[in-house]
Amino acid sequence: MSTTSSLRLGALALCIAALSTLAACSKTPDNTSVDARTSTPDQIAHGRYLAKAADCAACHTSPGGAPFAGGVRLGSPFGTFYGTNITPDPVHGIGKWTAAEFYKALHDGVTPDGQLYPAMPYTSYRTMTRADSDDIYAYLMAQKPAAVPNLKPDLKFPFNMRFAVMFWNMLFLKDSLPDASVGTSADWTRGKYLANALGHCAECHTPRGAFGQMNGAKALHGSDLGRVVPPDITPAALVARGWTGADLQTFFATGISRQGPAFGEMHPVVYLSTQYLSPGDLRAMSVYLLGDAPPPPTPVQPGSADAAQVAAGRNTYVAVCAGCHGLGGEGKPHVSVSMQGSSTLRQADPHNMLVAMLDGVEASAFPGTESLQAMPAFAKTLNDEELAQLANYLRSGWGGQPGDVTAAKVKALRDAPSH
């Protein structure tokens, strides 16, 4: 975040003082709702399914911690947020909340304790139905209370002025984003709800403006959040990287497909959320992302590259990569992914490929029996020129992209800070 952007938000925040009385204008939720003490087993079971679809555990269950007790660290350009306790604990959790108050938190970002930061994706959850909100509430209230205090966010000025979020909502809180694709089928409609309201795909895969707001005109076009950046998942970008509806369903169910594995922030999405969705819902989400009548996937065509660069890159590949990935890039089950048809190699921007080469990739377990060994980091063993040559060999040969990665680009990413 630039200094100019910070000052702009600071100026807006100072204007809030004159507008604070507008808080009273926020909607009052309908108080007719489910009573947690009389929830039916079916309602709780449905709420459990919806909580999986909404990926609640990713932010609200820390590794080794009590379920939904919070504590997950969420880095951002504005500072650090922490997932909160959403167990029925009456002191630290949501035990005193009504279902109506829970719905208001999801819909408006307002809790009995005040305004939420939009790090909690109420910007997407606001399109969730009241019935589904009530079922998630019933499920959460049926969990074991955990007396775990919440951690306060550690934010830079002026982003630590929580009351300024009210004005942010006035400017940027929308009821919906443009559709990802074209469709009218029942699967497409269901997939839209799953991807937008519950799965909140746009929160990661949509670029952000100066104040952290989603750029609706570029919905699902990818973003630059994090070290591993969420890619463009619009229909045109997906088919350009070889994806079909069947591939997407396999990826969501297992975390790995012929285009490669889920890594970075997408791995926990699969592990905690999408693997639990029904085959029908996985199909629906895939239909929505590609549309009712998607174009055929684009076959890989060799990309243009300097012959000397490719030759040098192949020498490096044979020396440090082929032992796991194979001379022909075929990969090995339970060891390494195939380079053939890799979605990461086929991305127009080589960012994620270079991050994997510099930082390595952790060993991963996937739903079912598949697993992959760790990929070592090459930041200390290969210099910028060697990594650029390797990248150009991979991209031009198996990615169908031009061999245009430079040593300067590698160095810039090597030196870039991560948040």
TrEMBL record:
GO terms for molecular function: electron transfer activity; heme binding; iron ion binding; oxidoreductase activity, acting on CH-OH group of donors. Its cofactor is heme c. GO terms for cellular component: membrane. Keywords: Electron transport, Heme, Iron, Metal-binding, Signal, Transport. InterPro entries: Cyt_c-like_dom (IPR009056), Cyt_c-like_dom_sf (IPR036909), Cyt_C_IC (IPR008168), Cytochrome_c-type_DH (IPR051459), Membr-bd_ADH_cyt_c (IPR014353). The keyword Nuclease does not apply. Residues 42-144, 186-293, 308-398 form the Cytochrome c domain. Heme c 3 binds at residues 321, 324-325. Binds 3 heme c groups covalently per subunit. Heme c 1 binds at residues 56, 59-60. Residues 1-23 form the signal peptide. It comes from the Bacteria. Heme c 2 binds at residues 201, 204-205. This is Putative diheme cytochrome c-553. It comes from Caballeronia sordidicola (Burkholderia sordidicola). The lineage of its organism: Bacteria, Pseudomonadati, Pseudomonadota, Betaproteobacteria, Burkholderiales.
